Amino acid sequence: MKLSVTMMSYNDIAGAGHMSAAEFIELSARSGVDAVDILEYYWRDKSREVRSIPGLLKDNGLALGAFCIGNNFLVPEEKRAGVIDSVKSGIDTAVMLGAQRLRIFGGSADFARELRDARIEIVAEGIGKCIDYAEANHITMVLENHGGAPQTSDEALDIVNRVNSPFLKLNFDMGNFIFYAEEDPIEAAKKTFPYVGFIHAKDLKRIEGPRKYQACIVGEGIVPVRECLQFFKQNGYEGYVSLEYEAWDTAGSMQGVSPSLEYLKKVLNEI
Fold first, then answer.
1. For 24-83, how does the pLDDT look when each residue is reduced to its tens digit (9 = 90+)?
2. DSSP 3-state helix, strand, coil percentages of the chain (rounded to 5)?
């Protein structure tokens, strides 16, 4: 397995406009990872940066684990064509960057639980309208389990099976299974393994209050990170494990990313 880090891990800095993609790449190279994930959210001058990033990655000895967008298919019907266009645009950007994977979402609308089938159908239909374009451009879309749809492993599998294409895989986010679905990530891994094309590693602590969980430095919380990665390793997964650090409120990225990466390196070396 290869270690990556997503630019989202530095959201407290990049989101405020204080870190460019180039600076992120250079910082990540010094941290000893194999790859980085670039996100649509942080462009300053997209056309210039997209042209420069392949060279920056080569100069810094890094691969591009994935390009990531933040689409939402769970919008009113009249807006869904625009979402499909945005996903296709993400595929175009992934091609220009030299990525092989595009991280996508299903949707984030707060639909009632009884509308589960409707949510899944909308997301599967939207992805289905992008899948031929992904295939034509040799880009594998990796669908993250997130809020809205899909949240659970069953929902993720339902969407993948409905689309039924080798160009749609799952982005297995071990922390999101707990945070959004109260689901054991190990059991989710056992269900989804054949369809996993990318992995997000993060950690959580239990807290009092309606949110129940708070992000923390990886290795210090309740997410069975080692056990998840060991399961994937034992079953032949050879792809990327990407740190998605989100504990910016309690330990800013410049304090939390490094120990999280060191923990992941240690685990990957030991399993």
1. 999 999 999 999 999 999 999 999 999 999 999 999 999 999 999 999 999 999 999 999
2. 50, 20, 30
Widest CA span in the chain: 51
pLDDT at residue 112, rounded to an integer = 60
Cβ(219)–Cβ(203) below 8 Å: yes
Question: Which three-class secondary structure state does DSSP give residue 261?
Answer: helix
State how far the Cα of 110 lies from the Cα of 172, in Å rounded to an integer: 21
State both tokens at 173.
């986010």
- Whole-number Å distance between alpha carbons of 218 and 247: 9
Judge contact between 187 and 178, C-beta under 8 A. Answer: no
Domain ranges of the chain: 2-270
Rounded to two decimals, what is the model's pTM? 0.97
Instruction: Give yes or no for a contact between 35 and 241, defined as CB atoms under 8 angstroms apart.
Output: no
The tokens 């993250």 sit on which residue? 144
10-residue block means of pLDDT along the chain (271 residues)? Answer: 98 97 98 98 97 98 98 95 98 98 91 77 97 98 95 97 98 98 98 98 96 96 98 98 98 98 98 96
Instruction: Say if domain 2-270 classifies as CATH 3.20.20.150.
Output: yes
The DSSP secondary structure of 146-164, one letter per residue, reads: -SSBS-SHHHHHHHHHHH-
Report helix, strand or coil for 244: coil
76 cis-preceded (ω within 30 degrees of 0): no
CA atoms within 13 A on the CB side of 20: 12
CA angle centred on 117, ends 114 and 119, rounded to 5°: 95
